[in-house]
Design brief:
Largest sheet: 3 strands, antiparallel
Radius of gyration: 28 Å
Organism: Flavimobilis rhizosphaerae
Number of strands: 3
Distance between the termini: 97 Å
Strand content: 15-25%
Helix content: 40-55%
Number of helices: 5
Keywords: Membrane, Transmembrane, Transmembrane helix
Shape: rod-shaped
Protein name: Flp pilus-assembly TadE/G-like
Strand order of the largest sheet: 1-2-3
Oligomer: single chain
């Protein structure tokens, strides 16, 4: 039969394994939180870009659009048109600063006085990028929507 002293000596090094396990779990949690935070920041950036593009499109009127909307013969005509709004959004996004991954315009709609822009972008955070190369994944899709209403001077 073994004594208590021999049984205690047989447990040498078990605390080290426990500490290493806890450290690995803590590092995994920290890395996951960093990746999720990066995704949230990318979504916030995309929503901000969509808001800015919608505001730019709502304010970007040509003289022809204004004259057509204020013409008494065209009652019910709106200054904002789908084609004009889409062109304004595309022009704004051309200089938006998204150089690593392009931003895709999902939808641009207008009711004549307001503009709604929906953008989509594929994001590859550094942690996901590491595993995505092995798994063949394309990344995580982030969608952002922005709205703006046309204002009149006064």
């Amino acid at each position: 039969m073994t004594s208590v002293r021999e049984r205690v000596r047989g447990d040498d090094g078990q605390v080290l394994v426990l500490v290493i396990g806890v450290a690995v779990v803590a590092i995994a949690i920290a890395v996951t939180l960093a990746a999720v935070s990066g995704l949230l920041l990318e979504r916030k950036r995309l929503v901000s870009t969509a808001d800015n593009a919608a505001a730019f499109a709502a304010a970007d009127l040509s003289a022809d659009d204004v004259y057509r909307a204020t013409d008494p013969e065209n009652s019910g005509a709106h200054a904002l048109t789908e084609r004009g709004v889409r062109a304004s959004v595309a022009a704004h996004l051309a200089g938006s600063g998204f150089t690593d991954d392009p931003v895709e315009i999902v939808a641009v709609t207008t009711d004549g006085t307001s503009v709604t822009v929906t953008l989509r972008r594929t994001v590859r955070p550094w942690l996901v990028r590491t595993f995505a190369d092995v798994l063949g994944d394309d990344g995580i899709v982030v969608v952002g929507t922005g709205r703006a209403r046309q204002t009149t001077g006064g």
